[in-house]
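Handout, page 2. Input:
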Amino acid sequence: MVRIAGINIPDNKRIEIALTYVYGIGLSTSQKILKELGISSDTRTKNLTAEEANHLREAIEKKYRVEGELRHIVKSNIKRLKEIGCYRGTRHQKGLPTRGQRTKTNTRTVRGNVRKTSGSGRKKNADKT
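Output:
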């Protein structure tokens, strides 16, 4: 089992997809990393040699901000927005969408699955009096 940045990478998936389990690495980034190292994107994680795994680990840890470091940066950015009191910061505080999405009909999960109309989501009574 290959371990990169504190994350166990799944063995039976293609390495291209398995790298996306690391926070901060998406599909395009994983493809770019594999192209730089000359590793085929079709190989399974369990078929990687120890040398390839070490090269992969070193390249990711040196060049990219991933996992804890990236999470800390994102959290501090959101904290800064809240402190200066900008619109995006207040949206983060209220737990609402920050990027301009509509909230009248969508974003029920963000708002806590609130149903404001009288008939929507109500269970039907089995027996009537």
